[in-house]
Structure formats: C-alpha cells, structure tokens
Amino acid sequence: AQSVAQPEDQVNVAEGNPLTVKCTYSVSGNPYLFWYVQYPNRGLQFLLKYITGDNLVKGSYGFEAEFNKSQTSFHLKKPSALVSDSALYFCAVRDGRDDKIIFGKGTRLHILP
Amino acid sequence: DTGVSQDPRHKITKRGQNVTFRCDPISEHNRLYWYRQTLGQGPEFLTYFQNEAQLEKSRLLSDRFSAERPKGSFSTLEIQRTEQGDSAMYLCASSLGPGGMDTQYFGPGTRLTVL
C-alpha cells in the first residue's frame, strides 16, 4: 500500500531565505507525486507534479520539487520565500497501478517577515 | 468561474439529521472524487466516479454515506443519520480522465459541523 510522510508539522523560514518542505513516500509501483497548497478555509490548489522525466519539476508561484528515487523523496523547494507563501502544504502520491491519491498530513509553512 | 464548485460551503446540522452536498466538476472532466479532511490531517479518499460509474469506495465510507453522479456531471454526497464524528471538511475534486498523470483539481470544500 502506498503512503506519504511529511516529517515536519511546521517549518519556519525568514522572508527571502530559501525554503524546503520535506516529503518521503512508499509505493510498490511507479510513483506519481504531487504537491498541493491549502490556504485557510479554502480547498487545495495544485502546485506541481512528477510523472516521469527530469527529476527537478517546476511549478506554480516559483516552487519546484526534486524527485529522488533512491531516497524515495520529493521535497518542495523555493529559492526565496515570501510572506504570502505561508500556508499548509500537502504532499501526495499515487501508485501508477491505482486510481486514488494518498495525502500526507501536511506541513504548515510560516514565513516570517 | 470554470473551476470545481461545491455547495453549500458550510453546513451545521444536528446529530441524526441527513445532509446532502453537491459538487460540480470542471465541465470536460470525466473523473470526480470525494475526500474528507479533518483538522490536522490530509484529505482522505472516500470514493470516485468515472462518468456516472462509481468505481471505488473507501472503507471510510460507511453505509450511512452514499454518493451519486447520475448523469456523469455533478455529484451528490449524502450522509444519513449524521454523527458528531462526521464533522469535517468534505472536498470534491475532478480530473480529465483515467491515468495516474492526470491532475486532480479541488473545489473549496463543504465544512460540516454536527452538533
């Protein structure tokens, strides 16, 4: 069965500094990996996904994520954080043989001005 | 607005009452998903449809829950005899079609509070 782990409940970063939100996964088949962001009282907004190809995936709002097969990780990164990036971030995985997405518990990102 | 829409956005009900939520997917999307999200957790899969066919249901979906997508467009999720444990955000998502590479786009959710 597939699973996702987001080891940090909260990450604090000063504005302008680079940020990383960690994610590791477990699937038995080929992984399809996703990052979503959730603002208060809102649904999830899609940021980026990895299906195949280049291990570095670029997404919305300047975010990117690096797929590392040997470490089974898919960390979310941004070179320079903005206060407006403060939100709840979810990593998700889909086994290529399955149809549903499994989400992590989420990481709350605080960007400090 | 051409995104996924959900109605109502908020629902407060008393224990034992029935509630029904509606989801309108992005118009050309064939797949529609329902998730439940409780505080401090990520969304949990409940069920999904390919057009009007319900293809999978989670163990989380007890017999008090039923979902339909009668014409392959909008979907409804009904909870009968609500319990306090049903209090959660109910999220709907849609995607273009089968295939793990398809992105699921989410609606704003319906927040259910059972008193």
Supply the key terms.
heterodimer; A: about 110 residues; mainly beta; 6-stranded mixed β-sheet; 4-stranded antiparallel β-sheet; B: about 120 residues; 7-stranded mixed β-sheet
What does this structure look like?
The complex is a heterodimer of chains A (113) and B (115). Chain A is an all-beta fold. Chain A is built from no helices and twelve strands. Chain A has strands at residues 3-5, 10-14, 19-21, 24-26, 31-38, 44-50, 56-58, 64-68, 73-78, 87-95, 102-103, 107-112. In chain A, strands 2, 5, 6, 10, 11 and 12 form a six-stranded mixed β-sheet that branches. A four-stranded antiparallel β-sheet of chain A has the order 3-9-8-7, with no helix packed on it. In chain A, a hairpin with a 6-residue loop joins strand 10 (87-95) and strand 11. Chain A is globular, with a radius of gyration of 13 Å. Chain A starts with a strand and ends with a strand. The model of chain A has no long low-confidence stretch (mean pLDDT 93). Chain B is mainly β. Chain B has no helices and eleven strands. Chain B has strands at residues 5-7, 10-13, 19-24, 31-37, 44-50, 53-57, 65-68, 75-79, 88-95, 105-106, 110-114. In chain B, the strands form two sheets. In chain B, strands 2, 4, 5, 6, 9, 10 and 11 form a seven-stranded mixed β-sheet that branches. Chain B has a four-stranded antiparallel β-sheet with strand order 1-3-8-7, with no helix packed on it. The radius of gyration of chain B is 13 Å and the shape is globular. The mean pLDDT of chain B is 92. Chain A binds chain B through residues 4, 32, 34, 36, 41-46, 49, 51, 90, 92, 94-96, 98-106, and chain B through 4, 6, 33, 40-45, 48, 55-56, 58, 91, 93, 98, 100-101, 103-109, 111.
Summarize the structure.
The complex is a heterodimer of chains A (113) and B (115). Chain A is an all-beta fold and 113 residues long.
Our Rg estimate of chain A from Cα atoms comes to 13 Å
Give the helix level of chain A as a range of percent. under 10%
Largest sheet of chain A: 6 strands, mixed
- Strand/helix succession of chain B: EEEEEEEEEEE
Question: Beta-sheet strand percentage of chain A?
Answer: over 45%
Work out the oligomeric state of the chains in this entry: heterodimer
Largest interface in this structure = A-B, 26 and 26 residues
Number of strands of chain A: 12
Shape of chain B: globular
* Strand percent estimate of chain B: over 45%
Radius of gyration of chain B: 13 Å
Largest sheet data of chain B = 7 strands, mixed
Q: What structural category arises from helix and sheet content of chain B?
A: mainly beta
**What's the pLDDT, averaged over the residues of chain B?**
92
Q: How widely separated are the two ends of chain A?
A: 41 Å
Annotation field: number of helices of chain A: 0
What structural class do the secondary elements of chain A suggest? mainly beta
Could you list the spans of chain A in which at least 5 consecutive residues all have pLDDT below 50? none
